[in-house]
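A favour, since you know our structure tokens better than I do. Just paste the record in under my message, thanks.
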Amino acid sequence: MLSKPQKPRQASPGHPIAVVAERTGLSRDVLRAWERRYAAVEPERTPGGQRLYSDAQVDRFLLLAAATKHGRGIKTVASLPTAELELLVAADEAHRPAPPAHADEAVHTEFVEAALAHTRALDGSSLDRELRRTIALFGIPAFLREIVPTLMHRIGDEWRSGQLTIAHEHLATAAVLAIIFEALRSMPETPAARRLLVATPAGERHAVGAALAATAAALDGWTIIYLGVDVPAADIVAGAATSRADAVALSIVHSSNPAAVVREVHAVRASMPATIPVLTGGALAVKMTKSLEQPGIVVCDSIAGMRRVLARAAQAS
């Protein structure tokens, strides 16, 4: 018996941005930013102005998402022809090491130990390669949440015990920050996104905690205003007002004068509108929770905790 001939597949009439976001896992803000800022696709528009994306454009967004997941900046890949983008993503997939079968804390520890060995040897090039290898294996989120905090905690312990010097700590910090800021710069910004000001208060000069907080929030779609370390309360308040920040995050890892840092945080809170939450985090902040907390100040015990607080703040607005 002859089979019934199949009808040729007809092109989709076009997908609204909500459907594209659902199919790709990219937020609407990211989709719009990639379209407007980087001209990644050019959708059709209805007479009412609604964007409509073709199946091919949805596939292109998926390729771009894969390329950025492998560590490539959207600015460098958005203009590539789709055929070339497909080859690039395929090559990245082919050269990406297979993830360990049990990517648990024990596996992460192996990479932390390797990074520590390079730090002890003051071998910055090898440390950089090792850190980038962990990103290739586990991705940026796991690198931020697990690898970096564990590594910096171990370095801090060995510095305090006299096994490492300030030179070792500075070398590791520089290597980690270079990668974190590279990742932060590669993330698209959207004018309509909520804005988070990140800094360390006066008296706190450890930058990694603040950089981790900034990058984690950027992954969640926040626009970051990063002021750096050792910033006086008045400048934090002025920066928040000028940048129209929706929230402020202050990292406190270590200080020779904890009481002065607490006063700085309280001064920020006292001079800011009550509608703008002030988040604090870091090893020392957690230890000083009772001293820090007051209405409008939230002490976050982890990056994940900070993300939850920011998510609630976004929903409440």
Q: What stands out?
A: The chain is about 60% helix and 10% strand. Residues 145 and 303 are 7 Å apart (CA to CA).
